[in-house]
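User: Can you predict the 3D structure for this chain?
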Amino acid sequence: MPTRKAAPSKKTLDTKLFVLDTNVLMHDPTSLFRFEEHDIYLPMFVLEELDNNKKGMTEVARNARQASRFMDALVSEGVNIEEGVSLQAQGNKSATGRLYLQTQFIDHELPKNLANGKADNAILGVVAYLHKQQPKREVTLVSKDINMRIKARALGLNAQDYFNDKVLEDTDLLYTGMLPLPADFWDKHGKDMQSGQQAGHTFYHLKGPLCRDMLVNEFVYQEGETPFYAVVAAQEGNAATLRTLTDYTHSKNAIWGITARNREQNFVLNLLMNPEIDFVTLLGQAGTGKTLLTLAAGLMQVLEQKTYSEIIMTRVTVPVGEDIGFLPGTEEEKMSPWMGALDDNLDVLNKADEEGGDWGRAATRDLIRSRIKIKSLNFMRGRTFLNKYLIIDEAQNLTPKQMKTLITRAGPGTKVVCMGNIAQIDTPYLTEGSSGLTYVVDRFKGWAHSGHVTLQRGERSRLADHAAEVL
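Assistant: Here is the predicted structure, written as structure tokens:
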């Protein structure tokens, strides 16, 4: 009987061999096609774990089923699995490597203190075997599990995280939506400047080296004796047009009784109140005013200006402590414990109405609540929102795929506001670099109908600011 080949041939030593852990496929099923010219090897235990996790309606189960479908399409009849399956078979032009499945039992000796029969250790055994069998080729385990990577390195094996889902390696490089102008900006860019006024705003058309780095709807500012705040209205080559802002720090421009308390809040209100902006992303730590400003702008445009028909608010329901179990009632009632932030902010927005007394405040509150709908993310698929003001809170806990599902719900006349704090991610496998919020901030920058601001200064209380600093 001819001996069966256990592993890929040693023909291309310049390409690497990546052994994928199950959690990589359950996080991103398309990871099979993300390794370009390199080969992929899947141990039998990975297929077992995919099979064990395929049931249910969770994101993980859906991804496990999709990964299995991809493999089924690749490993069709008449294909010799031992020689590897071309990953280009499904039209993925960039994936020029081959997929190998474990076709025989590999019993590689691992240290005695590693428990036998555990899936992680069995996968490590396969990696160790391949490493020994192909000493001249780089064999690397790819896993989202930190402990798995530590164990692999302890055994002298190559291991790395799955990086392809990361929008940015370093979130410090994430677009902030703001650009401070240097002190000599006007000397270098003011030579052939043209300016004019339109609808209460002054426009400056400038040329110069710094204009190349500007993005449409990015805020530029210069502090000093005469502070200058503007937004980039247009940008092409080394020319840009700046438009001055509406000053929302002044009480005459108050939005639902709220004025901006700092520079970034002023930028935020300029985005939220601009009907030309369909998509706004707000980042910032607790207490920077993201929810309050968004709600104030929403109420103003729904109840007074009638730009939108109602506010729809949704958030990712990830508990901070232990889950409290099932909640009674309708969708709205089930979501209400998660919406404490909404009620807290409505209390602040209602404070301004002193004339009507307690009865007037209660009536106003009921009117406002009737125009705010609270929806669960679970029932968003297939919906279309027309003329709505959609607020997605705690958006840092969404994956890029979930974020796409939500934002594509927007129909004509709808504005979407995404906000969150990427330092507070509660979802497993999501990091600051791979969060859906980071993803949309990076992908939407520079689009004429979207804007972003990273809020820096907390305005909640001196206690909250100090706690954020020292704890």
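The longest strand covers residues 228-236. The first helix runs from residue 22 to 27.
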